[in-house]
TrEMBL record:
Aminotransferase class V domain residues: 24-392
Co-factor(s): pyridoxal 5'-phosphate
Residue stretches spanning the membrane: none
Pfam family for this entry, one: Aminotran_5
Enzyme class, UniProt record, top EC level: transferase
Protein family according to the UniProt entry: Belongs to the class-V pyridoxal-phosphate-dependent aminotransferase family. Csd subfamily.
SUPFAM superfamilies cross-referenced by the UniProt entry: PLP-dependent transferases (SSF53383)
Gene3D superfamilies in UniProt: Aspartate Aminotransferase, domain 1, Type I PLP-dependent aspartate aminotransferase-like (Major domain)
Protein name, per record: Cysteine desulfurase
CDD domains in alphabetical order: SufS_like
Function field: Catalyzes the removal of elemental sulfur and selenium atoms from L-cysteine, L-cystine, L-selenocysteine, and L-selenocystine to produce L-alanine.
Amino acid sequence: MIDIDKVRADFPILKETINGKPLVYFDNAATSQKPQVVIDSIVNYYSTINSNIHRGVHTLSQKATDAYEEARIKIQKHFNAKNSYEIILTAGTTHSINIVATGFTSLLNKGDEIIVSALEHHSNIVPWQMLCERTGAILKVIPMNLDGELVMSEYDNLLSNKTKLVFVNHVSNALGTINPIEEIIEKAHKVGAAVLIDGAQSCPHLKPDVQALDVDFYVASAHKLCGPTGVGMLYGKEAWLNKLPPYQGGGEMIKQVTFEKTTYADLPHKFEAGTPNICGGIAFGTALDYMNSIGFDNIAAYEHELLEYATKKLLEIEDLKIYGTSKNKTAVISFNIGNIHPYDIGSIIDKLGIAVRTGHHCAQPIMDFYKIPGTVRASFSFYNTFEEIDIFISALKKAKMMLR
Ligand SMILES: *Cc1c(COP(=O)(O)O)cnc(C)c1O
């Protein structure tokens, strides 16, 4: 059970007013709000232990290093990785994907195939197109159906011994669809392909177990699960991380440097060149602690109730169409009302204090599939309420009258 008043008291921003109205924050799929413990963790870091890590012999540096490595272990435990050095701390999902995509340049040959899905975020399309340009590999796409689900029979047809990599998001950010990644991973492994799962949109709602999934790479951003921006993680199986070359050269990622030859540091440091986002990494660990204290089962159950309630209320509005109607989805609702441009709806309800996203949600291929320029997207979190949904619905009705 979620004690909603207690939870909301943890998030100082929820007391803000926007344009004179109480904030209704329904843009959680873009970034989540931060609880006080995460904000405190950032302030405490800079107030008490700020120092560079891994290099200093002095006490402060040791304290910062310990706190940073403790965060890595929290992340390892959260995702159930076998070893802490299989967790690479990155700048976020985009950075994590690029580490893998760049690393595969030396592992692919002309004519090899990479499979992505029609439901991808741009950050999960463009790096693979660039990889194909560098290597002559071919990009194949698992198509989607009108409910916003992947057509799995087509996936079977795309797989062959030419398939080297499969990249799919766990949950679509534009539609909320939860993809059948267990099946995707198992089938890819049968043809010897590696699988990367983009967990940016799933991790705020569920707790993936990378060993149970037997996934090769799993990536996420802290800022979508109550942590700060500019930090995220790349989980990779040890054998894969050893196979991939480093992404960036610099300090901290080397064993020995001479002008003739440099040898790389062991995992995870091989992929962590330069001074990292130390405070961000520590606060990422705090954010996971916070979410685990609420409990992912509680979060999923409560958000599902919000989703059902909002879906029912929205469908009572005439001419409103929801995109993404899979039974298996997180609390994301993408919709349009008649021919009204999503931007116009977004601007009017913003005047009423309500934050939603409008546009293509970095997933233009999905919009092209539905032949629409974009949608209004409301995405809920465990700190949202049924009352906020009521405010949202009456604001939409008002906007609809004004724009008709
Ligand atoms: C947000 C998001 C990304 C990009 O994450 P960044 O934190 O901006 O790097 C990638 N994939 C999906 C599905 C997302 O929702």
